[in-house]
Target: Adenine DNA glycosylase
Amino acid sequence: MGGSPEHRGELLKLKGLGQYTAAAIASFAFGEAVPAIDGNVYRVMARIFGIRSDMLSNEGKKEFAALAKLLVSREDPATYNQAMIEFGALQCVPASPNCVVCIFDDRCFAYRHQMQGQLPVKIKKLTIKHRFFNYFIIRQCDKLALYERRGRDIWKGLYDFHLVESKAPAITPDSLTIADPVFQKLVSKGRLTEIPKVYSHILTHQRLQVRFWWLEIPETERIDLPHGMAFYSHEEVEVLPKPILIDTVLREENYL
Ligand code: SF4
Model:
């Protein structure tokens, strides 16, 4: 292997090679005494030694790494790593491991405390999605155009206004309507007024930043609404099921 990196440290400098792969290559190919820790090995260590730290946190990873370093065989790290991985994959499986026929049955913390289902501890971080909503409240003769939200998105079955979602806070309404000729035509027939307040709305997995524009269409104009929308009278708007945010804006704008 002339010129090839022969140590885990060297391997780690190679682009795209993670800790686990570098350790596995170092031990399997070069006999280096470094532990290869994959999900199986985390599970085996957590259960046998009763490690209750979150295996996804930095502190938890350090604790597992320190123990793994102590455990790894100096004589035959390749066989040791292979054995740990396979033991986790075949015997100490994630759901319902067969502890009665396990070689560690007399010393395994999880088995003794019946905590196989709780170990290892993995606390998934909540991923929060940031979204930018831009609503156009189309009004003609005191009627508002709304549509019922369908599909797999938030607020299914509730009514809201013409919505253009953007990847970043919108700078001008022009930038929002340019991709939609039908709506652009509608805008050209009316008068746009921005509601100065920018609303923040927090959902479990999402943070919405929401802006609103009134689009007043003169009574005399004949218009085509975007597909799926219809005009509703004041009384109808009042009783239609709406997201709280839509209700709030209509009250703050003194429509409701
Ligand atoms: S006794 Fe059960 S939980 Fe403990 S190492 Fe064996 S299979 Fe895993």
About this structure: Strands lie at 129-140, 143-148, 159-160, 162-166, 191-202, 206-216, 230-232. The domain at 8-112 is CATH 1.10.1670.10 (Endonuclease Iii, domain 2). DSSP finds ten helices and seven strands in the chain.
